[in-house]
Amino acid sequence: MTDYPKSIRAKGEKARSLNVPKESLWRRLMGQKQLMWMSLPIVLYVLVFSYYPIWGWTMAFQNYKPARDFMDQEWVGFKHFQFLFTDPTFLNVLRNTLAMSLINMVLGFATAIVFAILLNEVKTRLFKRTIQTISYLPHFLSWIIVTGIVASSLSVDDGIVNVVLMKLGLISQPIMWLSIPEYFWGIVGASHVWKEVGWNAIIYLAAITSIDPSLYEAAEIDGANRYQKMLYVTLPGIKSIVIILMIMNIGWILEAGFEVQYLLGNGVVVDWSQTIDIFVLKYGLQIGNYSLATAAGIFKTIVSITLIFAANTIAKRFGDERLI
Amino acid sequence: MKKKSLQLEPIVFNTFNAIFMIVIAVVTLYPFLNTLAVSLNAGNDTIRGGIYLWPRVWTEQNYRAVFAGGTIFNAFLISVARTVIATVLSLFLTSMLAYTISRKEYVLRKPITIIVVLTMYFSAGLIPYYFLIRDLHLLNNFLVYIIPGLVSAFNMIVIRTYIQTLPEGLIESAKIDGAGDFRTFISIILPLCQPVLATVALFIAVGQWNSWFDTFLFASSKQSLSTLQFELMKLLSSSMNTNSSASMANGADLNAVQNMVTPVSIRAAITIVASLPILIVYPFLQKYFVHGLQLGSVKE
């Protein structure tokens, strides 16, 4: 705070502050009225939309009835949480959520890193740029559009996946991909890869370009071939960013998404497709069991926050910059 | 032998790599081009199958149907309106907040930063949020598209990081010239932030344009507030819920006899209309968002 410019003090306070060697916080704040006007209304907005709803968490400890006042609600302690962890549906939903987010994470990292490294090996600039621009395209499409594309690509009638597999003679008749429960996680993972691989590769490509070229020269002098250079120079060069991103992603382990599963899922695959978010939506807004749905939401938030702060601490140990 | 393989190796690798990249490009583009072909093909002909990259019976009927007035055109207008209004407002408010917390002398800088950044890591959850929207009388109200998402912590951090890279002297000289913080923000900071504002505007606009969940949750009972994505979602789920594709085709066939526009063909047309604006814009903003992402991650 040493470089605090005098010019932002309010005019009337100039004279008084001359006598005071160090201004009080309050006095300094009064000199920053414009900054306050520019920020406080927005902060108030954030408080209303992000913090105030936390009050609603009380519902999870009640048998919430919308018609009753707060004081008249019946308090039940941790009943809903206990129910959740013995409820086979919720445990199933939890399994699906964890499985799909793990698949998405592993596939997402692996494909983006491989794509970035291979794209980096393309030396024709125009070709490289064109491929990269094309690879971002699906990132900007909505999940509605992407799931529509996935559904029609996998369709039995004329879906391109079945057509190609039949032409190659790998299958003799079309497969109903979206009606086989065991395939659902894989389809969700593949859809994520299709949508995000180019986008996720941006960060790695940036990291690769920032690798010191003299490392490659040195490797070449030592007789390293292309694969050895990829393995011993490029990969270690992006190792730290990969680790940081992985640690950070752990916090989102319960965020398997909602849209894909909701849009692609159907009655046949429901045991494999439902995630926590869909569970909350179903119990809360469709069945009207607000208390149970809120409890599930709280569980998700608390797990996420714990993991994020743990991840943050671990990242700090690694000596890299934290997210917060 | 060894020498030969050394000369041959790069050619083999480059060829395979180029083929691999082309395969990726094809896999990325094909579904989109296929949708384009279906959208330009007569609906009753598409049902016969075999449309891949080129329409067999050309027609612009599907697009006519989209823009013919009525529900889908109305949804298109709502989508445009929410995207434009929310992007402008959100960009202004987010960057204004970002400016205030970039000022090192601002006493409330730390607390405000913490309050806003924390919102990236938790949410109260769907049910309490739904009740908030209801209590604010935003259900079935156009403002539900604008107000709830106005300030995003992530975007604010991106803009703040950019502002902090600007030379401090610029702001101080503006102050010496007698400009207040608001003046400084409007006439010095905003013009200098164009690259980052372009990136963030793209993020906000894409999010708005692609959003359907808020319509689904908060405005689904009011048809006049439906958006393009929501109409698309309704078409998609109606075609997916009729699980056996045969019954779907039969139902559509009956329609198709009199009508060149079928659910499948109109879905294709809406998909194209819903993705075209973004596809036209994003290649031009590429250099900005690539740089913006790097700012957020690879900080050396």
UniProtKB/TrEMBL annotation, chain A:
Record's subcellular location: Cell membrane; Membrane
Transmembrane segments: 35-54, 98-119, 140-156, 231-254, 290-315
Domain annotation ABC transmembrane type-1: ranges: 94-311
InterPro entries hit by this protein: MetI-like, MetI-like_sf
Gene3D superfamilies, A to Z: MetI-like
Domain of life according to the entry: Bacteria
Tagged with keyword Transmembrane: yes
SUPFAM superfamilies: MetI-like
UniProt KW keywords: Membrane, Transmembrane, Transmembrane helix, Transport
Transport among keywords: yes
Mode of membrane association: Multi-pass membrane protein
Pfam families the record matches: BPD_transp_1
UniProt record similarity statement: Belongs to the binding-protein-dependent transport system permease family.
Protein name: Aldouronate transport system permease protein
Upper classification of the organism: Bacteria, Bacillati, Bacillota, Bacilli, Bacillales
UniProtKB/TrEMBL annotation, chain B:
Keyword Cytoplasm: no
Topological relation to the membrane, as annotated: Multi-pass membrane protein
Keyword Transmembrane helix: yes
Pfam annotation, one family: BPD_transp_1
Domain of life: Bacteria
Residue span, ABC transmembrane type-1 domain: 76-285
Subcellular location: Cell membrane
Major location category of this protein: membrane
Membrane spanning stretches: 12-33, 72-99, 111-131, 143-163, 184-206, 264-285
InterPro entries attached to this UniProt entry: MetI-like, MetI-like_sf
Family from the record: Belongs to the binding-protein-dependent transport system permease family.
Name assigned to this protein: Aldouronate transport system permease protein
Source species: Paenibacillus hunanensis
